[in-house]
Design a protein that fits this description.
34% of the residues lie in helices and 18% in strands. By secondary structure, the chain is an alpha/beta fold. It is globular, with a radius of gyration of 16 Å.
Length: 200
Amino acid sequence: MNWAVTAYLIVGLGNPGPDYADTRHNAGYRVVETLCQRLGVRLTGRSFASKNARTMIDGKKVVLLCPLTYMNESGKSVRACVRTLGVPLERLLVVHDDLDLPLGRIKLARKGGSGGHKGVSSIIRELGGGDFPRLKIGIGRPRHEEPVSDFVLSPFYPDERETWQAVLDLAVGGCELFVLQGVEKAMNLINCRNLADKEV
């Protein structure tokens, strides 16, 4: 099957290794891993300095990818896949954590800047611009005087875990909507949701 040009590419940002697996900064990884579970595939591929899988969503070819480069070098992995497969940037979806959104909110955007996210900054740098969709996963901000650098590399608080599971479900659905109905329709359906208010 020829995957060049016709495939969608969904990238989950995070850091590899068990020490980072359940941290807020790995929200993008977790969304892609959960999408894999829903689709019955595993991230067994190791090309493009990543763990990746190729699958279908209702007849549409999709590559799921989590860079193994560590967050700050994510763009190298994404660029390699985009160039090798010829993925149009409008079919690239980057899923990442966002400090400026509270837990319970996710936001799909057509394009934009990095918002200070080093993984997104790396992708923008490697691709030569920010004209690609991204799905921002709200992780909130520290409740106490905890440095942000420590906060993003720590797990969700115990009382946040139920909301986090609901966020995962919504984000996975958002990824599927992006492939099946396009960015505009997906934006309309998910950007208004606030799971922190139990609006499920």
